[in-house]
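Subject: complex prediction, re-run

Hi both,

The earlier run crashed halfway through, so I resubmitted it with identical inputs.
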Amino acid sequence: MSGTRKKALLKVIILGDSGVGKTSLMNQYVNRRFSNQYKATIGADFLTRDVNIDDRTVTLQIWDTAGQERFQSLGVAFYRGADCCVLAFDVTNAASFKSLDSWRDEFLIQASPRDPDHFPFVLLGNKVDLESQRAVSSKRAQSWCQTKGNIPYYEVSAKEALNVEAAFLAIARDALARESQETNDFPEFPDQIRLNPNQQNQQNSGCNC
Amino acid sequence: MSTAKVVPTPSTTLSFDATSLIKYKLSDEVLAKVAASGSLRSSSCRSAVWRLVLRCLPYETKDWEVTLSRSRNLYRTLKEKHLVDPHDKKFSQDPELNNPLASTEHNPWNTFFEDNDLRDIIGKDVSRTFPEIEFFQNGNIRQMMSEILLIYAKEHRYVKYRQGMHEILAPLIFVIYLDNEGFLHAKENDELKTLTVEEEDILNCLFCKEYLEQDSYTLFCSVMLEVSRWYEDPAPSEASKQLIPKEPYMRVQDSVPSSRLMEDLVDIGNLLQDIDPTLAKHLSSLDIPPQLYGLRWLRLLFGREMPLHDLLFLWDVLLIDRPITPLAKCIFVSLLVQIRHLLLTSDYGGCLQYLMRYPPIADIDSFVKLARHYRNPKKNAKPDVKLNNFSHITVSGSSHPNRTQRPQRPVAPSKARPELESPPTILALAPVLQKMKNTIRDRSNTVSVPSSPRRSHEPHREPIRNPQNNDNWTKEVQMMEEQVSTLQTRLNEQDMMCCQISKALEVCAEDVRNAKSSEQCAALAQTILELSKTLLSIKTVPVNQSPSKNGKNGNVDEKQKLREPPQIRHINEMIDMTSKRPQI
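This time it finished cleanly. Structure:
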């Protein structure tokens, strides 16, 4: 499976608070449309789009998630195998910006990539068309990104189709570049057997002699 | 009609109206038959039937008024208890005592701010409820829904409010509203002549407009008793608390089910394995277990997998078979079996797009029969009809991503004609006629308007480079595409019905050939006449007519007018609305 995956499939997961526009972003990117008639996402949604990057066709599998849903109800292993995590917030809603930390942390806990410090995240500040209502400055978002290991930050508008294409393309490029570097976020094989005393095998073994 | 209590049989309940509610001796068994026959689809007592089978109302009609006044009062009390207004005189208005900025105990402002957060969350979802149906755009209805959900959340602290509950509530409030209107209409039309004064009073009390909110709350609570198991928080697992290395090969289906929702989804996977091992194997080889897509199916009771009018019929059958979990599992599996030919020929992305955007079912009657067959194979025969879906569109009427996205299979505009997987084969004559009648009646209720303008029928669409400059142009195109897909949906339905009628006519012709007596001939002539009427009634709606006077079904019975809700947005209104909308 991983052989074909490396060729042309990227799994992208969009996370963020309810109402920041995750579904709109996904649909704008995949269908190049905006509607203000989206229903609330329940659980998760899924769309694919093929893109050409350097003469290579790459299929992006985009998972849109429900803003109110925390990871556990979606199943523990839902996020595994993700190549990139898109964090989204609404620039007119400061609370959605404050939640970013917890979204990022929970993703790292649930997906547990091998190298959490370098796992590709991207931050999208949506709804920049509503400039007059802006509550989170670009600078503030950027400095958050810096503290998280220089996450790329894009200011986008799903409504105006502003920067969405560019952001997703960058996401795809970034994830693809990592693949070619042979880095492996989710190891094929477990690391060497660890003689880790605080693992569960200790609890069960009655006899260690 | 005699006033004696008569036990109705499905054949006598073609129209189940307010009078039947009072006159017949009803029971779960009788109502189960009525529901399965599809009679409630054209009935204006659906909400009453739901309330009976869910025990919001007793079967003894004499007790209705007492029961209703009790539940309505209860809701009022709950509202007083939970909706705290810090400005109320019962609280001290002295900021020394009750300061909005103080977090002291018993400060009404605490609850007030807490509630506001909850209100915000609920409001976000309520405002996104069935955007294609005008009824839900009404401010009063939204307000009612928000209050109901807020009270429910505060009364049921173990489940609280979770996204999705709003779409359980929405059909309930819709159905009660329609029935209240329907009752008024029946009264105006003098259709309740056979009732005594007392009987009419009982119905007046039941279908009382003023208590829409109260009655919806009561019904919602009863439905939630069945559904809340799928909304519960999963038991906290160790995994969420700390960073621990997990099994590298772990897949969704390998994780230990931590909630009843996940347990049920695992069961559904096993059920599919028993019923359709080939399909189960295919999906499992692609790593697509029910846990991956089934959360929404169960939490919304399949609310996004079919249009509202079909959904209500499904709920007729589902709500009476309590606890509903076993039948819900069978419906789930039937949905998979129904599109097995699509799934078996799709890859991972294709399968998921079909499962996340379920292609509309062409024949809901047969579908429900299939689900009931899996529920009880001995009692309910397996329908021998070939099952079909409109695989090229989504429930909202837009093009299906599996048809538009695949670069290797671009959809040419000329190919956007209906693509039924194979022509529908015919059942016996009667059920088909019934189904067609139902479909036509339903269609007068709900105009399916695409909820989201998605990419439609053009294979190579240039990305919009400068949306500001092209604003008007894009708007026009989007609007036209919305119209095209709406019309396409209607065309598909009509094509299918025409196919069925033609088959039915063939059967008739065969019977005429073999007929021995003139009586048989007369009966057949009658059938042919009915078919002809049906054919006439599926004529296309002229676009320039307003929905309230639309005359598309001039020769179909009066009941339709009665069921014609003025709230549902018609395509003309949609066009109006789109052109008035400041920006898209």
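The mean pLDDT of chain A is 83.

- K.
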